[in-house]
Amino acid sequence: MSNKYTIKDAFIKLGEFLSQFTTNGIVKKDNILNNDLFFDGFKHQIKLAKEHNGWFTENNILFALEGWSNLLTKNNLNQWLSGYNLNEVEAKKIAIIMAGNIPLVGFHDFLSVIITGHEVLVKQSSNDKHLLPFLAKYLEYVKPDLKGKITFTEDKLQDFDAVIATGSNNTARYFEYYFKNKPSIIRQNRNSVAVLTGDETEEQLSGLSEDIFRYYGLGCRNVSKLFVPKDYNFDGFFNAMYKWHPIIEEAKYANNYDYNKAVYLMSEFDMLENGFLMIKEDQSYASPIATVFYEYYDNLEQIQQKLNTDQDLIQCVVSKGLTKSDIKFGMTQKPQLWDYADNVNTIEFLLKI
After folding, report:
1. Using CA atoms, how far apart are residues 228 and 236, in angstroms rounded to an integer?
2. N or C: which end of the chain has fewer CB within 10 A?
3. Strand 278-281 relative to strand 271-273: parallel, antiparallel, unpaired?
4. In this structure, are residues 248 and 254 in contact, taking their beta carbons and an 8 Å threshold?
5. How far is the C-alpha of 101 from the C-alpha of 103, rounded, in Å?
């Protein structure tokens, strides 16, 4: 097999392969490289991922795959990497410890390591272990000299030069101690917030429902907290959420809803709910499944200051122009390649090792 493709080409071909797996359905296309070898196998991996993890519904898996297919284009990759010199990279072995909260959550780190010319040693979460190894095989088939440069392990990580690790606040402390002698990016829990003024359109609030419910709210880019002005009327908010009401038919979500509702009722907490979502006034950023926390603010300057102070706890801010880096309603789960987790530029890190 010829090695005519660059690493970048291999990811573009992977994007084309993934374009067959969308939220509108799975449809085999003509002219996709190596499709006869990989198409049915990947359909099977999706089935396994779904059976293995109840939060990974087919729709959520396909949403993630469609997102990556849209990102892995020549234009996107060129725009992302145009400012970097990738030709003089001395290849090192980079370990990645992946989270498993949403499908392919570690793919950006994987892509960043490979595309900068390094070798990768991947330790996956047991919750999300079926999709990435198969996609890695596809890449190796398109570009055979990637063979031997991509390793998956379930054992203790050994013989690596740097590490990118994602976990909870507890595991992050352990990672920081354990990897203190290695160059590292260590990510902790973060949550996303929306700042509402009461002037949002129906369309914006409808977008916000996607930011809240996609992946059941399990991602760090999901909105788990609202900041609202005093006397905010939640009617429009609840109306916009209503299209997601079928989510309560799904057992894992319904169990969490029932449990959290019982806890709030027994504790006599004030909360509002609509049969599938509860909102509760709370200072915290991390809300349980089926719950969104909210907090009142007096003026926008006050909220800007708070978000600034708490920036290490926050992944995304959804608002209408409140901050330079805010995200449009409905777009938190559609990041670009240059939207880095925790605002830490992975490419720069990998080029400096």
Report:
1. 13
2. N
3. antiparallel
4. yes
5. 7
Q: Classify residue 85 as left (phi > 0), alpha (psi -120 to 50) or beta.
A: beta
The boundaries of the domain holding residue 99 are 7-189
Residue 327 has what DSSP assignment? B
Burial status of residue 197 (CB atoms within 10 A of its CB: 0-12, 13-18, 19 or more): middle
Instruction: List, for residues 274-309, the tens digit of each pLDDT value.
Output: 999 999 999 999 999 999 999 999 999 999 999 999
Examine the domain organization and report whether 312 and 293 are in the same domain. yes
- C-alpha distances out from residue 164 to 123, 150, 292, 316, 332, Å: 10, 15, 30, 20, 22
- Burial track 149-161 (b if 16+ CB lie within 10 A, e otherwise): bbeeeeeebeebb
**pTM of the complete model beyond 0.90:** yes
Percent of the chain with pLDDT over 70: 99
Say yes or no: 182 and 88 in one domain: yes
Strand order in the sheet with 223-229: 271-273, 278-281, 291-297, 223-229, 191-195, 314-318
**Does 185 share its domain with 198?**
no
- From 167, 189, 211, give the residue that closes a domain: 189
Look at residue 336 and tell me if it is in a domain. no
**What type of residue is 261?**
K
- Half-sphere exposure of 196 toward its Cβ, with a 13 Å CA cutoff? 26
Torsion of CA 172, 174, 175, 180, to 10 degrees: 120
Distance CA 110, CA 128 (A): 14
In the numeric block, the tokens 């926390």 are attached to 293
Given the structure tokens 């398109």, which residue do they identify? 142
CA distance 247 to 254: 8
